[in-house]
Design goal:
The chain is mainly alpha-helical. The protein has two domains: 98 residues; 136 residues, Alpha Horseshoe (Serine Threonine Protein Phosphatase 5, Tetratricopeptide repeat), CATH 1.25.40.10. Helix content is 81%, strand content 4%. The protein contains nine helices and two strands; from the N terminus they run ααββααααααα. It has a two-stranded antiparallel ribbon with strand order 1-2. Helix 6 packs antiparallel against helix 7. The longest helix has 89 residues. The N and C termini lie far apart (138 Å).
């Protein structure tokens, strides 16, 4: 603010000098030549000094303005640099987030695959025909596959599947049930003698098996088909005696009545 006052004061001073010079001719008679020259020189010095001061102020203001412009340009460049850095960091953060998600997905997939592999080899506890036992996943898979063939009505295929199971898993907890279904498949294909053999093997190994009454009834049916009525009657009588409360025993009583 003081610089602008100085500039306004210098302009007023110059105006005054010009006015005095213009009036100098009219009042020349009031001053001597030496005094006039001295006054003019003094005024000229004051004007020059005032002009120098004004020029200095204008130069300083110009320099300050240029400096301010450069500072603003530098600040703008810094802001642009910060924005670019922020964008770069945001991109890195987004990529890192995607990488973490991909790693988590892969870890989950690997964990699931590992669980599946463990389930495929770890023994499992199962309950089949009222019997609870521990079995290998491969045994469970093979037994269920053979049973599915039987239930589909493919009795020759079921016979082959259960024979293969019995050969490969003779100590399996599924073995008695496999013999039972093997005997039924053989009965369906009219291989009665082999069916009787497998039913009796099952009964000798597990006489308290949940399907023991059905196995005895099936033996009697095979004997009837073979025209061995006496053996069928003995088998049916054993069934009624050993398992009197079973549904198979009720069927055995009806067949005994017909055999008589």
């Amino acid at each position: 603010m003081s610089d602008w006052r100085l500039m306004r004061g210098s302009r007023g001073f110059l105006s005054g000098v010009l006015l005095l010079v213009s009036l100098g001719g009219a009042h020349a008679s009031l001053f001597s030549d030496d005094e006039a020259r001295k006054a003019i020189l003094d005024l000229r010095q004051r004007v020059e000094a005032q002009k120098a001061a004004t020029d200095a102020v204008e130069k300083r203001l110009t320099d300050e303005n240029n400096q301010l412009r450069r500072s603003l340009l530098d600040l703008q460049n810094q802001i642009e640099t910060l924005r670019a850095e922020q964008a770069r960091l945001r991109g890195q953060a987004e990529q890192a987030s995607r990488d973490i998600s991909e790693i988590q997905r892969r870890q989950a997939a690997q964990g699931q695959a590992m669980d599946e592999r463990l389930r495929s080899i770890e023994p499992q506890r199962v309950v089949v025909d009222g019997r609870e036992f521990v079995t290998a996943p491969a045994e469970k898979r093979d037994f269920e596959a053979a049973l599915a063939v039987f239930r589909a009505g493919d009795f020759p295929g079921a016979q082959a599947a259960f024979l293969d199971f019995a050969k490969r898993h003779p100590r399996s907890g599924y073995f008695p049930s496999a013999l039972f279904w093997l005997g039924n498949a053989q009965y369906a294909t009219r291989d009665y003698k082999e069916a009787i053999t497998n039913f009796r093997t099952m009964l000798n190994q597990t006489p308290e098996h949940a399907r023991a009454p059905e196995a005895l009834l099936s033996i009697a049916n095979c004997q009837i088909e073979l025209k061995d009525t006496r053996a069928a009657r003995r088998t049916l009588e054993d069934l009624v005696r050993l398992h009197p409360q079973s549904e198979a025993a009720q069927a055995a009583k009806e067949r005994l009545a017909r055999l008589r």
